[in-house]
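TL;DR need C-alpha cells for one chain.
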Amino acid sequence: MAKNNISISASITSTKYFDIKNTIDVINKSLVDRIHFDVMDGVFVPNITYGPDFISSIRNFSKKFFDVHLMLYNPYPYIENFVNAGADLISVHVEAKNTFKSIKLIKSLGKKAGVVINPDTNVKKVLPYLDFVDEVLVMSVNPGFGGQKFIPKVIDKIQKLIDSIKKYNHKILIQVDGGINFDNAKILIDMGVDSLVVGSFLFNQTNFNQAVLTFKNL
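>> reply
TL;DR here they are.
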C-alpha cells in the first residue's frame, strides 16, 4: 500500500517503447495517475513534438488523466483544439504570450488550468495567477528536452510557492517536472509537492510499475 498521496504523471515524450500503443498499454496497467504530454512549438522552446491530433488519437485508449503542458509562444489560439482532443488539464507558461487570456479560456471550457514557471523565472511572476488556476507546474529543468538533470535551486522556489499558497489559503496543487528520480522525489514529497512528472527515469526502469510504486512509497 502506498505511503503518500503523490500523483505520478508519466511523460509520454520520454517513452522507450517501440510504439505508442505499447506505451499506453504499459501506462494503463500501472499505478500511474496521469499521462503527461509535452507540446512544443519550436519557437518558445527549441524542440518540436506533437499537437492535438496525437492526443486525440489515444484518448479512447486510456482512462488516465490527460495532463497537457503547452510549451507554446502563444497558446491561446490552440486551447480549444486541445480541449477537444481530450485534455483534462492544460498548463500554460507564465513566460508565454496571453497567459491570463489562455487560463480564462481553459476554465470557461470546463477544464482544469495550470500555470508553468521556468527555473530562471522569479517566483513572484506566478503569484498573480494563484487565484485563477488549479495547479502550478514548476520546471526543475530548462524546458525543451528530456533527460536533463534536476536543477537544485528550484527547491527554494518551490518552498516560497508552498508558503504563499498556505498563507493565502489557495486550493492549488503543485507539480514539479524535470530530472525527477527517487532521491529528489523524496525531498519534494516531504516538502508537500502534490504531483511529479517523471519521464526518462521512469521509462528506463526495468519494471515500470514497480518504479511507480516506489515513488508512491517514498
